[in-house]
Amino acid sequence: ADENNIDLTIVGPEAPLVGGVVDQFRAAGRAIAGPTAAAARLEGSKVFSKDFMSRAGIPTARYETVSTPEDARRAIASFGTPVVLKADGLAAGKGVVVAQDRAAAEAALPALLSITGRLVVEEFLRGEEVSFIVLSDGRRAVPLEPTQDHKCLLDGDRGPNTGGMGAYSDSNILTGSQSEMIMDTIIEPTLAAMAARSDRYTGFLYAGLMMTTQGPKVLEYNARLGDPETQPLMYRLHCDWAEVLLAAANGNLAGVRLDWKPEPSVCVVVAADGYPGAVRTGDVIRGIREAEESGAIVFHAGTRQSDRGIETAGGRVLGVTASGTDLRAAIANAYSATAKIDFEGMQYRRDIGAKGLDRREASW
Ligand code: AMP
Ligand code: GLY
């Protein structure tokens, strides 16, 4: 950034945040939007974030921290099943197991314990998930529009947990009063409790929520924008993002308003063969131009340029994103663009956004 005299830096992934990139930029007097290393522990350590929520009275699932297989087995037995196991520390979306029965929970223990030697064993919560992201300058928080991710690999929320197989953004995901309740019971208390620890939170704060019959509860915090939530959000954004981020980096979001296009947007993640396990790379991708000609934006995640053209270079390869006059139309547009994409072994979910179609009947 110094060499190129970069005016504003925005941090995408969690590892540099947890590693202190924001602290270093600030020390060097360069504008950067993101939390300090101390504040990014909300994402970097599940144990830190659960203890933090418990002390600050922020609604979340009941939990116990364990560091031996014996204690883990005892905690699993006491919570009953389904039960959720979370490795402490960053695990690139692979540190959480939702186990349907005791055998599955116990089978997952060795791998999870090997990540950092500590585990959170947690009560299973029922409800619909919502990703609620705000931008904070340390004092004020400006909410982004709500989004919903689809974490499981397969249609109908089956199969293993992934980094996210698709997301949509629609203002109908939350009512005005639900958004207010989330700001009042989760976001504001989180920022206040961080400030009280002298770890004032700046940058994006992502609350992954479960909308339970007892109200919204935090499943996790991320210290950044979500992937693939960002793709449908960017599609709907209708103001100068750089100005907003510069204001946040300079600690002054007063008077900043975000404008959004009202039309819902949908992002279908196209993943490589084998994802979320070991993936094959180097397959040539066809149809990106055709997909974009239909009005979609194709976000690249795991691609690279080679002599043969653009080829796969990671697990989640592309995020095909489109909008429509209503959610049904947005889904149809995103899938007709996705159908133009082709590479060996590609996989994607066929039901991204479908949950939003019967929202009006939902009880939460
Ligand atoms: P996390 O990385 O903590 O958000 O967990 C990944 C995914 O696991 C979440 O998006 C949920 O789908 C699921 N999950 C995590 N914690 C719970 C819980 N306590 N109850 C039910 N599902 C959960
Ligand atoms: N989509 C969830 C995440 O970015 O962690």
Provide an overview of this structure:
The chain has 364 residues and is of the alpha+beta class. Helices cover 32% and strands 26% of the residues. The chain is built from twelve helices and 19 strands. It has helices spanning 14-18, 21-27, 37-44, 46-56, 69-79, 102-116, 176-196, 230-236, 241-249, 288-293, 327-338, 354-357; strands spanning 9-10, 32-33, 63-66, 83-87, 96-99, 119-123, 128-136, 141-143, 147-149, 152-154, 158-161, 166-169, 203-212, 215-222, 265-271, 297-300, 303-306, 309-312, 316-323. A five-stranded antiparallel beta sheet has the order 9-12-15-19-16. A hairpin with a 2-residue loop joins strand 17 and strand 18 (309-312). Helix 3 (37-44) crosses helix 4 and helix 5 (69-79) crosses helix 6. The longest helix is centred in the middle third of the chain and has 21 residues, at 176-196. The radius of gyration is 20 Å and the shape is globular. The mean pLDDT is 95. Residues 61, 84, 86, 96, 98, 122-125, 129, 151, 161, 208, 219-220 line the site of adenosine monophosphate. Adenosine monophosphate is lined by residues 61, 84, 86, 96, 98, 122-125, 129, 151, 161, 208, 219-220.
Biggest sheet features: 5 strands, antiparallel
**Which structural class do the helices and strands define?**
alpha+beta
Total count of helical runs of at least 4 residues: 12
Any low-confidence stretches, pLDDT <50, length ≥5? none
Amount of beta strand: 25-35%
* First-residue to last-residue Cα separation: 46 Å
What attributes does this structure have?
364 residues, binds glycine, four-stranded antiparallel beta sheet, binds adenosine monophosphate, 32% helix, five-stranded antiparallel beta sheet, 19 strands, alpha+beta
